[in-house]
């Protein structure tokens, strides 16, 4: 039976992964949240991996606050880059495959056709730059790894755009959402199934792109969220310029 150690288990994807445990009887899971395993604590990583001896580490721990990262660069890089280097080192030491999740935000958004794994990343915000550095540390130091880039992850857990929209709709009867940033919303459950299929399969190590199949703007996504939840609310399509944010975001980040 393959043993899988999951980090960042209290986040939205971690909680989805936990809910799937019974569907994967041939996998044994151990879950660690930020309290039980801070991935930037090198000594603790060694202690936990030495005790658990996992076959796979699924790293769902990350600094994901895109706007906040602009003013919190040090912490974003500590979690998304330096700690990922520590994970790579501890995985090498204990002969563990590292499965790391990365993001469409490693790209600058200047393309108008889907980004493929051979495209050269060029992040335009701190979060994207920190995630890219994490990828680079893995590539430079490991042979047995999967880096899975995904985009616009949503679920019923944690913080995500879907939950933000539903929360805002409780107190507003009108909402404005950008319609000039294009990407693919990804159900966190589908992402977890994909990650587990890699563990169960025998695909080559390396970088993969995985996202939902619908290409849309955040405005389109908001409309479909409200429709699915039978919420009647006026949604105004606006431009990025009309919704200023601390971090720049790619205009187009469809993963192919
Ligand atoms: N959300 C999205 O739209 C997308 C996410 N991704 C990537 O997918 C992965 C999972 O994201 P998602 O589930 O949405 O993220 P969440 O923000 O929901 O969860 C991340 C978790 O990581 C934990 N964490 C933060 N710092 C540390 C640390 N030093 N040690 C251990 N745990 C830590 C957080 O705990 P605490 O709250 O206690 O700090 C939190 O529970 C991430 O790598 C992210 O970059 C990729 C594309 C899109
Ligand atoms: C709340 C809100 C956001 N927006 C815009 C801001 C932004 O351009 C876009 C998405 O907003 P959010 O801040 O919710 O999403 P954001 O945090 O940018 O989402 C990103 O998170 C990281 C972790 C990733 O890796 C990416 O793939 C992506 O999912 O919608 C509106 O136009 N109106 C609104 O009311």
Automatic annotation (TrEMBL):
RmlD-like substrate binding domain span: 3-255
Catalytic activity: dTDP-beta-L-rhamnose + NADP(+) = dTDP-4-dehydro-beta-L-rhamnose + NADPH + H(+)
Pfam families reported in the protein's UniProt record: RmlD_sub_bind
EC nos: 1.1.1.133
Any one biological process term the GO annotation gives: dTDP-rhamnose biosynthetic process
UniProt pathway annotation: Carbohydrate biosynthesis; dTDP-L-rhamnose biosynthesis
Keyword NADP: yes
Cellular component GO terms, alphabetical: cytosol
Ribosomal protein listed as a keyword: no
InterPro entries documented for this protein: dTDP_dehydrorham_reduct (IPR005913), NAD(P)-bd_dom_sf (IPR036291), RmlD-like-bd (IPR029903)
Keywords carried by this UniProt record: NADP, Oxidoreductase
Entry's family note: Belongs to the dTDP-4-dehydrorhamnose reductase family.
Function: Catalyzes the reduction of dTDP-6-deoxy-L-lyxo-4-hexulose to yield dTDP-L-rhamnose.
Name the record gives this protein: dTDP-4-dehydrorhamnose reductase
Organism (species): Myroides marinus
């Amino acid at each position: 039976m393959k043993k899988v150690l999951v980090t960042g288990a209290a986040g939205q994807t971690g909680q989805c992964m936990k809910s799937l445990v019974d569907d994967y009887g041939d996998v044994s899971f151990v879950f660690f949240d930020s309290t039980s395993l801070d991935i930037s604590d090198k000594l603790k990583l060694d202690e936990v991996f030495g005790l658990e001896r996992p076959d796979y580490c699924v790293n769902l721990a990350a600094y994901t606050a895109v706007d906040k990262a602009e003013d919190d660069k040090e912490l974003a890089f500590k979690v998304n880059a330096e700690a990922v280097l520590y994970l790579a080192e501890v995985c090498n030491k204990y002969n563990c495959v590292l499965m790391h999740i990365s993001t469409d935000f490693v790209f600058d958004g200047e393309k108008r056709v889907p980004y493929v794994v051979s495209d050269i990343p060029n992040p335009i915000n701190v979060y994207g730059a920190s995630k890219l550095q994490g990828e680079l540390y893995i590539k430079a130091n490991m042979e047995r790894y999967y880096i899975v880039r995904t985009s616009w992850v949503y679920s019923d857990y944690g913080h995500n755009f879907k939950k933000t929209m539903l929360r805002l709709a409780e107190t507003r009867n009108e909402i404005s959402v950008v319609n000039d940033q294009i990407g693919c919303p990804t159900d966190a459950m589908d992402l977890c199934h994909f990650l587990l299929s890699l563990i169960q399969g025998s695909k080559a190590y390396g970088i993969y792109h995985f996202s939902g199949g619908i290409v849309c703007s955040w405005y389109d996504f908001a409309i479909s969220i409200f429709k699915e939840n039978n919420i009647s609310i006026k949604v105004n399509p606006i431009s990025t310029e009309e919704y200023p944010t601390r971090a720049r975001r790619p205009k187009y980040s469809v993963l192919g």
